[in-house]
Amino acid sequence: MQLVNDLVSTQNLDNTAGQRAIVLSAQGLVKGYGRGKRRFEAVQGVSLTLHQGSVLAFLGPNGAGKTTTIKMIAGLVRPDAGWVEIAGQNPHRQVAALRQVGAVLEGNRNLYWRLTAEENLEYFGVLRRVPRRLAQRRGAELLAQFGLADKRQTPVQKLSRGMQQKLAIAVSLIHDPQLLLLDEPTLGLDVEASQTVKALVKEIAAEGRAVLLTTHQLDVAEELSDRVAIIRQGRIITEEPTQALIRQFSGSTYRLEVDGLLTPAQQQAIAAFGGTVNGSIVHFSGSPTSLYDLLNVLRPLPLVSVARDRADLTQVFLKLMQDPADIRHD
Amino acid sequence: MIDLLIAELKRTWIQFIRYPAEVIAGLVIITSVFYGLFLSAQYMAGPNFAFGDRLDAVVVGYVLWTLTLYIINDIAIGLQSESQTGTLEQVFLSPLGAPRVFFARAIASLALRLSLIVIIIAILTGITGSQLAFPPVLALPMLSLVMAGYGLAFIMGACALIFKRVQQILGVFQFVLLFLLAAPVEEWNGPIEILRYLLPMLPSTGLLRDVMARGIDLNWGDFGWAFLNGVAYLAVGLLVFAWAERTAKHNGSLGGY
Ligand SMILES: Nc1ncnc2c1ncn2[C@@H]1O[C@H](COP(=O)(O)OP(=O)(O)OP(=O)(O)O)[C@@H](O)[C@H]1O
Ligand SMILES: [Mg+2]
From the CA of B253, which ligand is nearest? Predict the structure, then answer.
């Protein structure tokens, strides 16, 4: 049933993405560091577009240029070429554009350690142009939403790593931005904390925000993202809807399991479709439509599972890293 | 802007007070250093020397020195350590723009330090029996002094943004500052007299000494110069800071890379 779900959900996404407003548009970003011989082109022509409510996973090996790209989007690093627009404004020209950006940056403390959770929310709220009272109110709501209400008066220093990360995300939302940039949001978190952060990111996207996240945990990316962009040595080598990308790398073999024994007639019919039978398990290679003909043959046996042999993002990623030339999409 | 100012005051105050032991230790150290300086000045002046305005002028100089030094350190060291810990980038993400945020910070830091200095002066005048005058018109040369001081603070902040390590520069700067604040400019004659008006803060410190320690009325002509001096250094400081911000963004070095 996985298959059917995938089809439906990607179709939905593909249809609606066109109608939703564009939140982030970055075109042809280029950034080099250093001079002369030591000159190094960290980012070489990266373009990204994000719509409301969508999550883009920005993947790539260490040093590929993810953080540099994110910082160019956030106005913290000036691109050598290319431009960024957030809700129609360029953060490098109009600081007001930053009103629509929240960011949790990689490996950083994004918070004041001597201030409590509440105080951080209020301070950063004001810094992001939220009136103070409103910042206090929104801060309290976010603490509740993020399950930190009982920690509101604890100095950040005394919070666990997972709580600090959750708080950093809450703070990045205090001004209700349309775009959220998360650079490795689950780095260094234990399983449970990662789960909560993942759930929160889903909620945040469901609220209609666009989320750009980088991660080295590909299962996180697979679970959260609508689209994946993979960057390697400063260039984007592929950008596709997550499920489409995975499908593209998945075999077209289905594995069906039934409850009970197949009659010889059924077995013959399956063989005629090119399928093979192994006890109560049927393997079948064919188009998604012929799969339904096969399912008819199995009637009335109860189905236990229907699944396509499915690649996961890790396999996709590894294949792309080995041989990027094969799968370049323009 | 008011909200920002309140928020910065609150943040400065909380960060300062969260560890009361540090605060008290700090106060004790500053006061005793002050007292020590005062005593050694007295000693050097010799026992037969008639104290009075000269010694008070020294106290005024030291007070101003710590005040400006604190403002400058707050901004420069603050920038440096926030760049290392990572909060700096969050500050630069403010749609208010960095110069405005740091200006609010400078004011908050001044308010805090000024209150501390008042306490310290109260203790010191208690111990030494010094007679300092605090007429309201004092606020004017104080303002011109602080403006020039902020100018220097922003220049040091710019150094912190670009060079990352500012302790050494600040260490040297401390003495430059001491010279600027304690130099007996009133006695300068001839060609160097013009420096009285050109060097940062000098025209203001002269006025402050006159008003606080010598009980002389404010000379409005001199104040005009002091004010111009303050405005000019503040403007230069802000320009240099804006340039440093652009450079740091170009080098990708805001985040302590
Ligand atoms: N400020 C800087 N000055 C010089 N070189 C830099 C600077 N920032 C990044 N680089 C270099 O640019 C390249 C890209 O770095 P970036 O941090 O964007 O990679 P990344 O994709 O985020 O990697 P990671 O997965 O390790 O976080 C790296 O080789 C890095 O050393
Ligand atoms: Mg990175």
Answer: 1
User: Which residue did the predictor score with more confidence, A30 or A327?
Assistant: A30
Question: In angstroms, what CA-CA distances link B177 with B72, B196, B228?
Answer: 10, 14, 19
Cβ contact, residue pair A109, B85, below 8 Å: yes
Residues of B within 8 A of A115 (CB-CB) are 11, 14-15
Mean pLDDT of A79-99: 93
pLDDT in tens, A145-157: 999 999 999 999 9
User: Do the domains A251-308 and A2-247 match in fold?
Assistant: no
Position A330 scores a pLDDT of 42
The residue in chain B having the minimum alpha-carbon distance to the alpha carbon of residue A118 is: B11
Q: Which atom of ligand 1 is closest in space to residue A231's alpha carbon?
A: 21
Q: Is B18 on the interface with A (CB under 8 A)?
A: yes
Q: CB–CB of B58/B65 below 8 Å?
A: no
* Helix or strand (DSSP H, E) at A316: helix A313-322
B254 touches chain A (CB under 8 A): yes
Indicate yes or no: CB of A71 within 8 angstroms of CB of B10: no
Architecture of domain A2-247: 3-Layer(aba) Sandwich (3.40)
Q: What is the pTM of this model?
A: 0.81
- Which residue's C-alpha comes closest to atom 24 of ligand 1? A62
Q: How large is the angle between the packed helices B220-251 and B202-213, nearest 10 degrees?
A: 140
Of residues B115 and A86, more confidence is placed in A86
CA B10 to chain CA mean position, Å:
20
Residues 6+ apart with CB under 8 A from A123: A112, A115, B7, B10, B11
| A64 CB within 6 A, ligand 1 | yes
pLDDT tens readout for residues B78-111: 888 888 888 999 999 999 998 889 989 888 988 8
Chain A contacts of B6, Cβ < 8 Å?
Answer: 126, 132
- Residues B120-134, mean pLDDT to the nearest whole number: 72
Q: Is the CB of A33 under 6 A from ligand 1?
A: yes
Q: Where are the domains of chain A?
A: 2-247, 251-308
Residue A317 in contact with partner chain B when CB distance is under 8 A = no
Query: Would the ipTM clear 0.90, i.e. be above it?
Result: no
User: Across residues A214-242, what is the average pLDDT?
Assistant: 91
Q: Does domain A251-308 have CATH number 3.30.70.1150?
A: yes
| Percentage of residues in chain A having pLDDT higher than 70 | 91
Cβ pair B133, B211 in contact under 8 A: yes
Strands A227-232 and A235-241, how do they pair? antiparallel
Q: Which residues contact B107 (CB under 8 A, 6 or more apart)?
A: B5, B8
Pocket test for ligand 1, best of A30, A33, A220, A232 (most atoms within 8 A of CB): A33
Best of A40, A76, A132 to mutate (most B CBs within 10 Å, chain B): A76
